[in-house]
Amino acid sequence: MINKTTGIATAFAVLMSTGSVLHAADVEVLHWWTSGGEAAALNVLKEDLASQDIGWVDMPVAGGGGEAAMTTLRARVTAGDPPTAVQMLGFDIQDWAEQGALGNLNDVAEAEGWADVVPEALQAFSKYDGNWIAAPVNVHSTNWVWANKAILDELGIAQPTTWQEFVAALQAVQDSGKVALGHGGQAWQDATIFDGVVITAGGPEFYKQAFIDLDIDALGSETMVEAFNRMDTLRGFVDDNFSGRDWNLASAMVINGEAAFQLMGDWAKGEFLNAGKVPGEDFLCFRMPGTEGSVTFNSDQFAMFDVSDDDAKAAQAAMAASIMSPTFQSAFNVVKGSVPARTDVPDTDFDDCGKKGMVELAEAAEAGTLMGSMAHGHANRAAVKNAIYDVVTAHFNGEYDAETAAEELANAVEGAM
Ligand code: GAL
Questions:
Q1: Which tens digits make up the pLDDT trace of 71-99?
Q2: From CA 260, how far away is CA 157, in angstroms rounded?
Q3: How far is the CA of 116 from the centre of ligand 1 (A)?
Q4: Would you give the DSSP letter of residue 339?
């Protein structure tokens, strides 16, 4: 028999539990963090949200650089069913904001003082029309080299400091019968290498002219021909099976001692750490020789799609606040290989590569040599980026010589602008 008091108590309990379910709505998160190291970092985020009763509905779309994820996203939006939160890069965030698809994070951003701690270079992508539309979770950069230390020691190769020394080191490895350069032949990976190679050929000002300002003369210049020549040189150091290989498998070649070097963004470090490898002991991290002082960055941000449901909005705000907390930024980026997206996070828990990454980011910002990565959507919009990808990858696969590639690059960009 239910007496009146119990009835009221039960109703209250139901209300309370419904209430807590209401405030702890799920977030559906679309992302491309599917490699071992990426999944380990993603777990830090999942667990952080779980500790706050924010449920996680996983929507992984494999494919480094996120092209496949962005295709899935377009299909979901077209079907009228956007995910709540989406991993996104640079100009893609601005594109979606321009289409009015994103929600507004101003309340949480103001309450938590994001404007004071997020560097201007990132705010340029996290805000649209003065409104916060995305929460930056990290800063990666693309002009890194990952090296197997045992191979270098065995062959007596010192860490190269110039492009010429780097080529000599690659040659020495190849002569020893090992694979010099672990690489995956996918357009975005070829483009990732090109970010750094363009700087080795023409310096940071040239990179800006070509990729940020889209100066057609720079794109078709002799300096660009030299950049393509250098891509030809690198092409000579990859193994026969490079075509189509995923980036994390190329990292695994360096981790396992099959290859000496990989040119890849610092998400590669996540793979080394996930395999139990220690920087300075098992592997080395250094800037692509000839690019020291420059940092080509990309920042993963979580863009929140415009949802009408109040619970979903509350969950988005809670997720954004969580992502931006200094303790989370440290815990996550230590695992991911990136550095924090806020300037006030101590480097205490970071390994030597992470500490170096943080110092170099600050120095490059100061010197004016912190530049958005072309390959990872931080230099120009997707149409231009894809036009550049096509030429870079066609050249890498032998379709064009260096002269033709520079000419095609200028034409392709002009056509996509
Ligand atoms: C980048 C992204 C990184 C990493 C990488 C490979 O675009 O910023 O977080 O995931 O792709 O998947």
A1: 999 999 999 999 999 999 999 999 999 99
A2: 10
A3: 26
A4: B
Q: Give tens-digit pLDDT for 393-402.
A: 999 999 999 9
Ligand 1 close to Cβ of residue 139 (< 6 A)? no
For residue 350, give Cα distances in angstroms to 136, 267, 334, 363. 19, 14, 6, 18
In the reported structure, the alpha carbon of residue 66 is separated from the centroid of ligand 1 by a whole-number distance in angstroms of 7
Q: Is 66 in the pocket of ligand 1 (CB under 6 A)?
A: yes
Query: Taking the CB of residue 104, how many other CB atoms lie within 10 A of it?
Result: 17
Domain pair 4-140+297-353 / 144-296+371-416, same fold: yes
Q: What is the pLDDT, as a whole number, of residue 24?
A: 52
Given CATH 3.30.428.10, say whether it is the number of domain 4-140+297-353. Answer: no
Q: Which CATH class is domain 144-296+371-416?
A: alpha beta
The CA dihedral of 121, 125, 126, 130, to the nearest 10 degrees, is: 90
d(CA 374, CA 204): 13
Whose CA is closest to atom 11 on ligand 1? 65
Residue 300 CB–ligand 1 contact under 6 Å: yes
Token pair for residue 177? 């019968």
Residues in the chain: 417
Report residue 21's pLDDT band, with 50, 70 and 90 as the boundaries.
very low
Pocket test for ligand 1, best of 31, 35, 300, 385 (most atoms within 8 A of CB): 300
38 in contact with ligand 1, CB cutoff 6 A: yes
